[in-house]
């Protein structure tokens, strides 16, 4: 069906489609206002959460050095407890350790001397020493020392798996010296065995 409007253009009534008229209705304005209010209502908790997160991060930054100190103290306490347990074990076998140190002295080859004996938490017994370098024989002497310690039943009963950790050559005036480090894990002995 065809409609013809013969009125002059100034007197004609323009009719808008319902979709074109929708933006003029109060319902659209109410929906837009509700969406704006919803966005604001959602952004307020996010902003508050962000501010709280910043406050907590600032507190963490303040507490970080104190936490590091506490961690360091706890680590030191753990090391001291391990050392205490090792020394108590040594005290229980005090007579045996004097024999073991005598064994260490007896099997030490000529030209080898010890500079330090320590107990380390991770490595066990650490023996540091030096040997005079004589055309490569220093390696043979250190190897012979390790084999002799491993072969002695009294020493091996307390210190197991003795290994050469490092050997380093140094020149002191006209003498070549090889500095070595031996390590051996301490074997935990049963406390019931009496010492002689």
Architecture overview:
The protein is an alpha+beta fold. The chain folds into two domains: 73 residues; 93 residues, Gyrase A, domain 2. The protein is 54% helix and 22% strand. It has a four-stranded antiparallel sheet. A hairpin with a 3-residue loop joins strand 1 and strand 2. The chain starts with 17 loop residues before the first helix and ends in a 10-residue tail after the last strand. The C terminus is likely disordered.
Which properties best describe this structure?
196 residues, alpha+beta, Gyrase A, domain 2, 4-stranded antiparallel sheet, 22% strand, disordered C terminus
Structure described in brief:
The protein has 2 domains: 20-92; 94-186, Gyrase A, domain 2 (2-Layer Sandwich), CATH 3.30.1360. The protein is built from 5 helices and 4 strands; from the N terminus they run αααββααββ. The protein has helices at residues 18-21, 26-92, 94-107, 137-151, 153-158, and strands at 112-120, 124-132, 159-172, 175-186.
